[in-house]
Amino acid sequence: MMKLHMPSVAYASTSLANTMMHSVFTFYYVKVFLNVYQVSEYWFHLSQIIFMTWNAINDPLFGYCQDNAKISCVRSRRHAILYGAPLWVLSFVIPWFPWGTYLPHSLIIGIHLMFALCFYDALFTFVLLAQCCLFTEISRKHEDRLRLVRYSQIASLIGSSSVFVCEIVSSNLSNFRNFQIATVIIAVLSYICMRYTGNNAYTEYDVKQMQTSQQNGTDVPPADRTTDYSIWRLTWQLISERNFLCFVCMNFCQEFHRTFISNFTAIIAGCLIPAGVIPSFIRSLFYGSMFITPQVKLSFFFFADNSDVLESFRFFRN
């Protein structure tokens, strides 16, 4: 029987939480606000513009703050996940509960959408930036990092079923009360997973600090990871790197495609295939497979023992 590697389990727990929440959020928020709350077209477009602007700003801002902050809940990777988890799950739940009785196209719906998008994206970025740093700081060994990727992929595969579960229990969102209950359950499970990461995912810095504290019998301050460079100089170093620019271009195309499919497939499918044309279960199965199938494909590459297959279909060529 295979023995679990607990540091990898701790790291992958946040991947599980992320996949469960983010899949549901990206797939349902457009459909809920357009079809259930009936937000106006003006407020929907304005919310997307504000969200796009905030999303572009908060990624480098939070990254710089986490590397240069003095307080433990921001500076420590584990603590950033531990203390960011309750706020992230709260931001996940906020879109699914109206702020009163909504009239179609009312102002409060637009404010609700803008707040929900910006609040969720801020905590999504804050927690996952810390997890990305955990990946590099847990171990420097290639074998250990490969194990982290594999555990994380298994967790993502499990978490990708959250959309299918929500589709089944809510009957394609026709039973909104059941959908709300399902999102609360997902939020609670996600919090438990991230709390486990925050309490158990120790980096090399943490281990070294604890060993030094035990030897000296006193508390040792966290290792210094700050830099004397300004955020502008660090930004210039990044954008002047050819490999970084190539990665950004590739990632932009991928994220644009993935975001469009996640946000608007349910809307487009509802227009092309009206209710009653196909069974509700088949529609739920189709929506769920959109998130599960890519994870199955990635799992095949990560766990394939046939090197010829990986050599033929690898993602990067020298």
Structural notes for this entry:
The protein is an all-alpha fold and 318 residues long. 78% of the residues lie in helices and 0% in strands. It contains 13 helices and no strands. The longest helix has 32 residues, at 107-138.
Amount of beta strand: under 5%
- How many helices? The count is 13
Helix content: over 70%
Q: Are there runs of 5+ residues with pLDDT below 50, and where?
A: none
Please provide the count of β strands.
0
Task: Categorize the overall geometry.
Answer: globular
The class by helix and strand makeup works out as mainly alpha
**Main pleated sheet:** none
- Quaternary state reads single chain
- Cα end-to-end separation: 38 Å
Radius of gyration: 21 Å
From N to C, what is the helix and strand string? HHHHHHHHHHHHH
Summarize model confidence as the mean pLDDT.
Answer: 83
